[in-house]
Amino acid sequence: MRNGFRVFDTHTHIGTALHSGRRISADDLLRAMDAAGVDRAVAIPFPMVTDYRAEHDEIARAVRTHADRLTGAACIDPFLDEDEFRTELKRCTSEFGFRALKLQPQYHGLNPLSKRAHAYFEAASEYGLPIICHTGTGAPFALPSLFIAPARAFPSLRIILGHSGGSIYFAEAIVAATVCSNIYLDLSSLMPHHITEVLTHVTPSRLMIGSDIPESMETEVSKIFSLQLSPEDRSHILWNTASAVFLVK
Prior knowledge:
Layout (H helix, E strand, L loop, with lengths): L7 E6 L1 E2 L6 E2 L1 H11 L3 E5 L7 H14 L4 E3 L1 E2 L6 H14 L5 E3 L1 H4 L6 H12 L4 E4 L13 H6 L5 E4 L3 H14 L3 E4 L5 H8 L7 E2 L5 H13 L4 H15 L4
Parallel strand pairs: 1-4, 4-5, 6-7, 7-8, 8-9, 9-10, 10-11
Antiparallel strand pairs: 2-3
Helix pairs in contact: 1-9
């Protein structure tokens, strides 16, 4: 709880990143959450790992231990054999109760308009999982506009544009959310004036916060309180939107 508002961080990581060597444990994440007044977080594996099953196992243990604080998400290489991909996705949902799937086109190298990506979005839609899609760095595959076609192909699929395209492509993320009602924006990494611009076009009921790494959590939460928002709009961004998308009360 922060200043009387519940806070749901929709973009955090637990595990070991192969691409950076970074390690974040559940305890590391929870300490950052406590310091920033964050009630719940979506815990996602890093996109490049040594053993994706082991990463999912670690997050599953953390979610079981801290069911009141953490919601699990899967992150699976989209170029795995399709049967292997679906077997792991089923394990993450049926055994672990994970509530989302992460796509990182910057590291996965997946064109969101490709046939392979279509199968990825289709699987998420079948399992009723929202997809958290990294956008911004990693263009062209991480361009927000490339998620308009999948959003239209799977209108019941909730697509969250992580980082809202970043400071360079945030206007493009606004356009994507404007033309597709099933696209949501994670405001992590945006400056406050970027968020103000987003709010002139996209309803707060489709906006949510994220931090990505523990060091950014305090900044990401604080900037929402720095904005001139009604209590209702602030509640949507901090908790209500994420609660509805990830089915958490």
